[in-house]
Write a structure and sequence with these properties.
Largest sheet: 8 strands, mixed
Strand order of the largest sheet: 1-4-3-2-5-6-8-12
Radius of gyration: 20 Å
Structural class: alpha/beta
Strand content: 15-25%
Number of helices: 12
Distance between the termini: 23 Å
Mean pLDDT: 92
Shape: globular
């Protein structure tokens, strides 16, 4: 365990962040560290990072090791004012039992430890991916069903965790439970990590710039919402302090569609039948050239568009950056191969892109 600094627990709140080194976790730690009402942050992750942040202490906890993880979590949760649960494993998508063990059984460990420690507030990362298929021509609020899309492990597991949280709230009414359901989260520091998770080793960085991508495919259903990760982190920070419960949709305007992407890249849209685009993605997946399973595309084109009114009114949250800003940050990060000194976000992994391709994209964590 390493500590960047120490604070007296009497000076402010003590917050534990589970999954503190990924895209969202690193942003949440940074937001909490800059909050004068937060005295200390405990960052938990499978691997302790080289990155440091004031007021933050790091410790290694692997949610995939059920049983042992519960005891470690309970010890860290003792005397915490809030626990923020962000840990989630997207890869290896080719091994859904491994992701289930960490994401679902690992969440069960977090819930059990939170109950044992009687934490006052538990703030959990859900997702737009938890929602059942919905409309693309109007916005839905947090009452939309959270059944997910059954053929994608990510959406299936997010929906299952929603049911776990339903049961937890009934069994532990004294614990304030908050669920954040953001759109797709982008930031410059996470670009390299997200390329590995979703795009694979063959994406040429020089092409990720305006004028270098000639066309953008336009298929039915390719309308979705994004958010800058720093804005999502601010919502988590606010939820630590405000006496809110329940789910919050987190999005930024405008809705992203092929026309917006084409405008950003200086490209033109080309109408492509959805089955043809899916077939191409499935072929890349089958050839181990892409880490994202075609079931994730099936979910994407069916996701509803979310209404963020409740977050604005009850949480006092509004995004500071629009969707274009979030996408521009991602594009800049992909082009310049940016990252952070945490295991999930490092610009390069040992062996580089050749090692990514050799091990089979989407297979290993």
């Amino acid at each position: 365990m390493t500590a960047a600094s120490e604070s007296s627990p009497d000076d402010g709140r003590r917050v534990v962040v589970v999954g503190a080194t990924g895209n969202v976790g690193s942003a949440v730690v940074r937001a909490l560290a800059g909050d004068p009402e937060v005295a200390s942050v405990v960052g938990l992750a499978r691997r302790v990072p080289g990155w440091s942040m004031e007021k933050t202490t790091w410790a290694a906890v692997d949610l995939g090791h059920t049983g042992a993880a519960r005891d470690a979590l309970a010890a860290h949760f003792a005397d915490a004012d809030a626990v923020i649960h962000l840990a989630w494993m997207i890869q290896p998508a080719r091994d859904p039992l491994t992701t289930w063990r960490t994401n679902v059984l690992g969440t069960d460990e977090v819930l059990a430890a939170a109950a044992a420690a009687s934490v006052p507030a538990l703030i959990c990362a859900s997702s737009v991916g938890a929602y059942a298929p919905g409309p693309k021509d109007r916005l839905v609020d947090e009452s939309w069903p959270t059944h997910g899309w059954p053929t994608a492990s990510y959406t299936r597991e997010k929906a299952y965790v929603e049911r776990m949280l339903d049961a937890f709230e009934l069994e532990h009414p004294g614990i304030r439970v908050v669920r954040m359901r953001p759109g797709f989260l982008f930031a410059r520091h996470a670009a390299s990590g997200q390329r590995r998770l979703f795009l694979g080793p063959l994406l040429p960085a020089p092409l990720v710039r305006p004028g270098r991508t000639p066309v953008v495919p336009d298929a039915p259903g390719l309308r979705f919402q994004v958010l800058h990760t720093a804005d999502a982190a601010e919502a988590y920070r606010l939820a630590v302090h405000r006496p809110v419960r329940g789910a919050f949709n987190l999005t930024a305007d405008p809705v992203v569609d092929p026309a917006l992407l084409a405008d950003m890249f200086g490209a033109r849209t080309v109408r492509v039948p959805r089955p043809l685009l899916r077939t191409a993605l499935a072929a890349a997946w089958g050839a181990r050239l892409a880490p994202a399973a075609p079931g994730l595309f099936d979910a994407l084109v069916r996701l509803p568009l979310m209404d963020r009114t409740r977050a604005e009114e009850d949480l006092g949250w509004t995004p500071r950056r629009d969707a274009r800003d979030a996408l521009a940050d991602l594009i800049h990060g992909l082009r310049h191969r940016t990252g952070l000194d945490t295991p999930p976000l490092r610009p390069e992994v040992p062996g580089g892109r050749l090692a990514e391709a050799a091990t089979g994209a989407g297979r290993r964590p």
